[in-house]
Amino acid sequence: MSFVSQYLLKGKTLKNLAPIISHITKQTLEKSEAKINQLTSGLNWNHPDPLYSLQEIDSVSNECCKVIDSSLIVFKNYSEQYPELKNACIDSMNNINEFFGGDYLNNNRKLLNLLLMIQTNQTKFSLLDDPDKFLLKSVIKDLNNQQRIQNPSQIQQLQANEMLIQNISREFNRNLSKEQYKLKLTQNELKSIPNRQLFNKYKGQFKTENDEIEIKFDQKYEFEIAKYSPIPEVRQKFFHAFSNTNSTNTKLIIKLAELRRQIGVNINKRQSYFDNQQRLQSIKLARPLSQAIRQIQQIIRPQALKDLETIQRITGEPDIRYFDIAFLKEKIKAFMLSKDPENIQMLTCFNLQNTIKGLMLFTAQIFQQQNLQLNTLIYNADSGKTEKLRGFQLFQKILNELKPNEIPLLEVILEDGGTILLDIFFRPHKLHKNQTQTLNEQGSTYLEQDQRPVAYLVDNLLPRDTTYLSFDQVKNLFHEYGHALNIGLSKTKYQYYSCARSTMDLVEIPSHLTEQFLENYDFVKHFAQYNDKPISKTMFDKLIFCEQIFRLLNLEETLYFTALDLELNSFKENDDINEQALLDINSNLLKNSFSSNYLPKAQKPFPNLDQTQINNIIGETLQQDKIQQIYSRISQVMFDQTKEEIEQESSTQELIIQEHKLKDFENNYLFNQFHHIFEYNATYYSYLIAKISSQKLYLDNFKDISSSDYMLKQEIRDLYSQGAYFDLKQYNKV
């Protein structure tokens, strides 16, 4: 077990964890180096049994990954108030990364030669089964990619650059969390922001109604509430402030682009860093990514404009801009609520308890996990002791009685021993985002039968959120739980290519697919309840309408960030990398990415809509066949090598950009908020692949069947459990 599992479940305290991390890291590196040395220069060189070599390599990878995964989780969620623990985690991650980038991969050509001998020796190769051959191919690919670098000084430069990038990433994210956000607002503008405490704090400082004063937001999430103001000028001020705060991050982005260009162009001899990273992924795109993005924008724009017109006519907003979308989502919901008192079901049908029930139901139905266990763990950071309680009910009762040093977790134990830990409640010094990581990967079947995977799911719900969850919060939990299942259900022969070890362009598909089931009434009715009764189909359709009317607009935002990530990682040898270059890139992308830039002002609002008219609008928006056709065309653009260029829609040719909207994008620094540029390592387009693939998988396999038939889809279950091995062998079949 990894040391994080030990400290959460076996009596280790946070205060005393730092030396344990340092000791285990040192011990793991010593054992790993000894194993590699034995393979490459010791008695086991050219071992007659090829499986021995493969198993030893997988074992080294397994032990090192357990340490680095655990260190990362502790660093992000537990170490902020313990400097020694924080430093121990950083040192651990750096030391493991240096080992993988040094003796294990870059400098060890004997290891590559050993594997190539196995591959070319017919006698040895014939002893391998398909999973063995897949591992052999995967390791050779990884070693080949690293060992393309022949010059020792370039190897050192690569390691130095990667270390600098890690430091830049930490500073970038630290700026996002610590920078203070400010807005200059009048009294009425401040009052329009849904934050009564903030208004009470500043209302005495206004001398007149038109007086503007500087409002300081203590927390970033308090600042982001400003985007829900009903006053367009406030939303515009918010967007400008949000885009242009964190100015110190501009220099970090420039430095990152320079370091990555060195890695891609000077060290790996590729056209760009993106070109180098794309070659390491599993799915080969049918055409250049920039071209695919433009074609997808053309495909979805006619329908996106129709959706915008519907939104505009329902809400009565005279003008719609990119930064209005969050407010309009809430206004659409408010419109639905105003039409029928029963519509309150849309806001109250989900609480934390029935949402957890939905996650358990999903696991049981899709994956035939009939003997799930759900426990509550209360970990005491001072004593190291963990109290274990069965079920969710007890957890809910004691939630408000927790002491400051007590950390509540939910534990899901799957039938075959895989575990999911849900760390879903806010606490100071915790990573403030939704994320799922590997706490412990599965043990290879030949080596450790008892090492089952442990996934660690992070959210930041406040205690008050447990009463009612928004649909967005439910989607986030299902999304992260999809990642957790992808880890917890892993059943590959080797951990080297198990589910969490898939390439970035594949790892997001299960999480997005899990979200899709929230659109199926036959599934949701079993846990979404109002007054102890299932939500009605009529109310469910209204709930989903409020989401799906924005589906293509959300996809446009994904396309924008995909293009931004592509551009920032595609600088070639002689390209200028400076502040103006970043501003020009971002301005052009913002201008061309969003259909709202093409929408004229003042669409006539609908007259007083009756329930029949509302139902007609909902029915037209929720037409699955129309959406299925759009996503089928998008999928062809991304993956079909034989598909010719998508012709531009005739209606798109007549569109005119609304010039008054483009001023918002001049000198825009929105890239200073784009933390995914670090996390996805030039593969943010994996999010686009996941959105497209999961939507198509769901529509092709599940849209017309009841929840009782879900478990018949063995191929989909394998998508979660077989990792990269399944992805490469059977992806096209699905």
From TrEMBL:
<feature type="domain" description="Peptidase M3A/M3B catalytic">
    <location>
        <begin position="227"/>
        <end position="604"/>
    </location>
</feature>
<keyword id="KW-0479">Metal-binding</keyword>
<dbReference type="GO" id="GO:0046872">
    <property type="term" value="F:metal ion binding"/>
</dbReference>
<dbReference type="InterPro" id="IPR045090">
    <property type="entry name" value="Pept_M3A_M3B"/>
</dbReference>
<comment type="similarity">
    <text>Belongs to the peptidase M3 family.</text>
</comment>
<keyword id="KW-0862">Zinc</keyword>
<dbReference type="GO" id="GO:0005739">
    <property type="term" value="C:mitochondrion"/>
</dbReference>
<dbReference type="GO" id="GO:0004222">
    <property type="term" value="F:metalloendopeptidase activity"/>
</dbReference>
<protein>
    <submittedName>
        <fullName>Oligopeptidase a</fullName>
    </submittedName>
</protein>
<keyword id="KW-0378">Hydrolase</keyword>
<dbReference type="InterPro" id="IPR024077">
    <property type="entry name" value="Neurolysin/TOP_dom2"/>
</dbReference>
<dbReference type="GO" id="GO:0006518">
    <property type="term" value="P:peptide metabolic process"/>
</dbReference>
<dbReference type="GO" id="GO:0006508">
    <property type="term" value="P:proteolysis"/>
</dbReference>
<keyword id="KW-0645">Protease</keyword>
<dbReference type="Pfam" id="PF01432">
    <property type="entry name" value="Peptidase_M3"/>
</dbReference>
<dbReference type="InterPro" id="IPR024079">
    <property type="entry name" value="MetalloPept_cat_dom_sf"/>
</dbReference>
<dbReference type="InterPro" id="IPR001567">
    <property type="entry name" value="Pept_M3A_M3B_dom"/>
</dbReference>
<keyword id="KW-0482">Metalloprotease</keyword>
